[in-house]
Amino acid sequence: SFHATKVCNALEGGIIATHDDALAGRLRRMRNFGFMSTDNVVEEGTNGKMNEISAAMGLTSLAKLDSFIAENYFNYKTYERDLADIPGVTLTLYNEGEKNNYHYIVLQVDEKQTGISRDQLILLLFAENVLARRYFYPGCHRMEPYRTLQPDAGLRLPYTESLVERTLCLPTGTAVSPTDIQKICQIIRFAVENAASIRAQLLHNTTILPTSIYESGDQTNCQTTAAHLQQFRQPHQK
Questions:
Q1: How confident is the model at residue 229 (pLDDT cuts 50, 70, 90)?
Q2: Angle between helices 178-193 and 118-127 (to 10 degrees)
Q3: Where are the domains of the chain?
Q4: CA end-to-end span of the chain, whole Å?
Q5: Fewer CB atoms inside 10 A, N or C side of the chain?
């Protein structure tokens, strides 16, 4: 993917890589309306050609790829250090023996240990202007057309069912500083240390779910939550 959020982006679009020459030829034809030659269309196709602006953006991004990965790695190690001793919060570790781009910071939240659910933690982070996300929620098997085609998929995917309920992603990338990461981790630590009281505040003052925020863009309830939590935080500051 060359989407703008990716480590190497061309604003939008993507790339297909293959060792199959025949498949590569067909893909090139499909990219160009199905043309075999100037006036010979041999199969269905579309206009999938990259424009010059996207190409320029892609080349610029590619030139900085190593520095992007280095910053992502530094962010990942900062998260690893600052989240290490928070009970119930587990950072998904990269295999250092592999070549990674460290593009995602993925956590698993064990509510039994944290005392606060993944969704409640996301709501708290939103209230503190931290864009945490439930990647990849709710799972393909819960959405159409798979939900209709495979209605019992959830019974056959117990690990997927578990992960989609406790996984979240935290901000990273070139716009996220070490100071930002430290503050984010402090919020998570504060939430776990004061889970019972925060949970009561959230249940009492708002019923909004993160999905509602994504769909409507309405931050009113989130701002209300932030105000209540700020009042709560004052006597608990250390």
A1: low
A2: 130
A3: 1-63, 65-236
A4: 44
A5: C
